Amino acid sequence: MRVVDRxxxxxxxxxxLQNSCDMKQIGMVLEETALITQRTQQFSAYIRxxxxxxxxxxxxxxxxxxxxxxGHSEIDGLPEAKLMERVQSxxxxxxxxxxxxxxxxxxxxxxxxxxLYADDPDQFTTTVIDESFFVLQQSMFRAITTCDINAVxxxxxxxxxxxxxxxxxxxxxxxxxxxxxxxxxxANVKHLSPPVNGEHPLHTMFLDAEGxxxxxxxxxxxxxxxxxxxxxxxxxxxxxxxxxxxxxxEYFPSEGPDKDKRVMFQQLLEAFDATKAELESLHTTxxxxxxxxxxxxxxxxxxxxxSLDYEINEAQYQDFQVNDPFAREFNSKAEMINxxxxxxLNPISCExxxxxxxxxxxxxxxxxxxxxxxxxxxxxxxxxESDVRALCSFFTSVSEHALRHKFARLFxxxxxxxxxxx
Length: 422
Prior knowledge:
Blueprint: H1 2-10, H2 12-15, H3 23-56, H4 61-67, H5 82-112, H6 128-145, H7 149-186, H8 223-251, H9 262-302, H10 304-307, H11 314-322, H12 327-344, H13 347-369, H14 378-398, H15 408-421
Helix pairs in contact: 3-5, 5-6, 5-7, 6-7, 6-8, 7-8, 7-9, 8-9, 9-12, 9-13, 11-14, 12-14, 14-15
């Protein structure tokens, strides 16, 4: 009791959540608090375990229980320890300071580690997510080592709140701020070409109106980096959840004294899934945004569909086989866009963008084919099927996941057209 009281007194300024406290010092006090709590919990568990084993061999259990003073446990014969009550008070203070520490540390990571290096084309992200999740993981593991399940549950809730709050807000703000800049930049077709001399693919976007490197250069200046940070955050959530569960099982075994409270921990951890779903939804929306940015390069390639005559004879069909009316040009431009995206975005985001692009392309072709003024000869039906196959072949070649099903309706339409034209 004296040790705990002296510790709390020595660090009263930290437990009072004074903003003037050094973050490094706060971290050290949190580590010491977790250790004190852990040792106290272990000491209490040991003493009560020994006492319980003694009670088990008492010959007359009924008489023993009757002889116990008020407030003593029938299981181990011991009273509630004042030391544990004092430590519970310390744990309450610990949880408040831990939340204060992780929120401020995450805020510092967001404001100070979001830096881009214009000469490093292999840097797809800034270190903001790495730094933020390092802080969150440290807080989570530190709480688990207290051996106090209520403290663990409280910190799990705070960590999830930091991800859905401070981190998500920062990611969304960077995407919004960088969207206009990247949208204007990528609208110029020359920026889709591979860079020369090993320059960063986004090098010209990093320059201001006077041709000087933007300062500071952060993900708020680069939409691709902002999207990569978002996807990295989604991936890190799974890793954090998994590592937390492993550490929790080590300190709180399924048959331990807190087994009844494990359900509460699992429920709080499952809340991570809802936060992850929010981030994934933001990622999906952002992938749709980039399609809107690059559509200016692809729409002209599909423009011939509006006036393309599929009521053709054999000679015209043979000419179309050599002089493709739109599919070849579309695939060429789409491949240029694909190469650009893969040079600046992570594979998961690229995959989702190409999947969405394939879906929108299919809807555009289907809409044109269903035009009531559109007529098909047998050779026109064959050409339509050839165009669909060319587009499907391209998207299949650049995608790691199956997407042929997106073209299923177009293939069904081509089959029907071929039957009706014979």
